[in-house]
Every structure is written in C-alpha cells, then in structure tokens.
Amino acid sequence: MERAGIPTALLCNLTSIAERVGAPRIVPTRGIPYPTGDPSLGAEAERAWRRRLVERGLEAVATAVHKPTVFPVDQESE
To answer: Are the C-beta atoms of 56 and 29 separated by less than 8 Å?
Structure first.
C-alpha cells in the first residue's frame, strides 16, 4: 500500500520488531492478549484509551516519514 502511495500505520505492541522489518509508522499498543484494549480499565477509561490509540494512528498516517517512526500514545489519566 505504501508503494502505491497509501500511507499505513501499524498498531502493535512489539515495536522493536516492527522497526526491524521496516514498518513506516508504528503506534505502540498495550499487552499481547489485548493490544487495542485494556480489560483492567473501567469502560469509560478503556474507551478513552482506544480513542487516543485511533487518533494517534490517524496522526501517524497524516505524517510523512522516511524511515520507521514510532508514534507513542499519550498516557493520559485513566
């Protein structure tokens, strides 16, 4: 998709591997069993976490990069 001019972002918890394989935009997630969620949070806090994750992914695809770049998600109060 990148070669066709469509920017991509990889949401993953193993960012070092994503960097090694050359993923252009990397958004770190949480643990292995629940990369895009966190069952230890309450419903509202988890919803807020997921929203921040998606918003960061959108920011990542809107950013031009020339090498693998990690876009950390702010850890606001949960």
So the answer is: no
Q: So where are the chain's domains?
A: 10-67
Reported as a single tens digit per residue, the pLDDT across 38-70 is: 888 999 999 999 999 999 999 999 999 999 999
pTM of the model as a whole: 0.87
Q: Got the DSSP string for the chain?
A: -TTTT----EEES-HHHHHHHT-SEEEE-S-SS-TT--TTS-HHHHHHHHHHHHHHHHHHHTS--SS-EE-PPP----
